[in-house]
UniProtKB/TrEMBL annotation:
PANTHER family: HEMK METHYLTRANSFERASE, MTRF1L RELEASE FACTOR GLUTAMINE METHYLTRANSFERASE. This is Class I SAM-dependent methyltransferase. One of its GO terms (molecular function) is methyltransferase activity. Residues 200-315 form the Methyltransferase small domain. One of its GO terms (biological process) is methylation. Gene3D superfamilies: Vaccinia Virus protein VP39.
């Protein structure tokens, strides 16, 4: 949404124009058709798969039901075709990811109009002012947004308002839109219980909500610097430190990877799976060609004090899916001039690992998350 883009459509021979809004930087539909409550789900699905955007002008709740109906018509991409050789786990996962990307694109074809403020210009629409403003800032002109993204902003506002209790901090944090909510407490517990090599200075690379930096600060590290490349993450982490009363020892700065200087402990919880992000939240899950992971390992030695440690918090799900091998990870560690000082493992306790309907339940239920303690050779 940094570069203004407009979309146009026709109503009774008159051309209408509005701003195009997409936090995922999705391209606007090539053509837009104004529709209302009379549009059936089958016709909507056909329009969406043909690349036609549907600007809904009826009832808000009917728009949500139509979106759900379109979603039910989409294949999940997890099943193999008949009479073909069984694909590998990695091949199945790639197909699944392709289907999810296709799904996101199709669902983004159902659009809703916004008036300045913003106001959702549909009957029975909720007040989205706070959710939209916290996610994107004020809206000064008429706009069009995918309903799916508007619902994401509304859901994020609920997370932000309610907060998320973090057992490792014994406190709540309030995730912002576009920052990954740390619902998986097991990896936070690894950082909370690892023996600290020193208390003078710590770095948290890719801080997100700031939760790992906050754990270090709460454990007594005197100066903690969290870095992130996203403005929304910096704002969220800063609020986390203020809410917890840690702003005198923890700070978030906009920086790609490492800040200047060296630290006693450098923690990084990179995206766990190699892959291309398709949505804003995907950036917390998918790391193209493991670029962030490899960059962290390569530069870590020059940012550790003598005797300092790098804490890599990462799952082995990529290995179980066949996307990356343990040998590759160990090779990157060795090439960087690092040694493994120790490792602490934990098993998942989140709901998805227990979901037997998940097409990758076998891999998710066997997943192990580890804190790798790394030192310089």
């Amino acid at each position: 949404m940094n570069t203004p883009v407009t979309v146009s459509w026709s109503v009774e021979g008159q051309e209408r124009t509005a701003l195009w809004c997409s936090s995922n930087n999705a391209a606007p539909p090539k053509s837009i058709l104004q529709v209302d409550d009379t549009l059936g789900a089958d016709d909507a699905y056909k329009l969406a798969t043909s690349g036609t955007g549907m600007l809904f002008t009826g009832d808000y709740h009917n728009a949500r039901q139509l979106l759900s109906a379109i979603a039910r018509r989409l294949p999940d991409g997890a099943k193999a075709k008949r009479n073909t050789a069984p694909p590998s786990t990695a091949e199945r996962f790639y197909k699944y990811r392709q289907a999810r990307t296709h799904r996101a694109r199709i669902l983004s074809m159902l659009l809703v109009p916004l008036g300045a403020g913003p106001v959702v210009s549909l009957r029975r629409a909720p007040d989205v002012t706070e959710a939209w403003t916290n996610a994107f800032g004020r809206l000064e002109a008429d706009a069009v947004v995918p309903l799916q993204e508007l619902l994401g902003a509304i859901g994020a506002q609920q997370w932000r308002s309610t907060g998320l209790h973090i057992a490792a901090l014994d406190a709540k944090i309030h995730p912002h839109y576009g920052t990954f909510a740390p619902v998986r407490g097991e990896y936070l517990d690894l950082v909370a219980r690892a023996e600290l090599p020193g208390l003078r200075r710590g770095f948290d690379i890719g801080t997100g909500t700031g939760v790992l930096a906050a754990i270090l600060a709460q454990r007594g590290v005197k100066q903690v610097i969290g870095t992130d490349s996203q403005d929304r993450a910096i704002a969220c982490a800063t609020q986390t430190f203020q809410t917890l009363g840690l702003e005198d020892r923890a700070v978030a700065i906009k920086q790609d990877m490492f800040p200047e200087g060296r630290a006693d402990v450098v923690v990084c919880n990179p995206p766990w799976l190699p892959g291309t992000p398709a949505t804003l939240l995907d950036y917390a899950i998918y790391d193209p060609k493991s670029a962030m992971l490899r960059s962290f390992l390569k530069s870590l030695p020059e940012h550790l004090v003598p005797g300092g440690e790098g804490w890599l918090v990462i799952s082995d799900l990529a290995e179980r899916l066949g996307l990356r091998s343990r040998e590759e990870l160990l090779g990157w560690i060795q090439t960087a001039g690092l040694v493994v000082l120790g490792r602490d493992d934990t098993v998942p306790s989140h709901g998805r690992a227990m979901d037997t309907s998940d097409p990758f339940h076998a891999q998710r239920s066997a997943e192990v998350t580890s804190l790798w303690r790394l030192g310089v050779k």
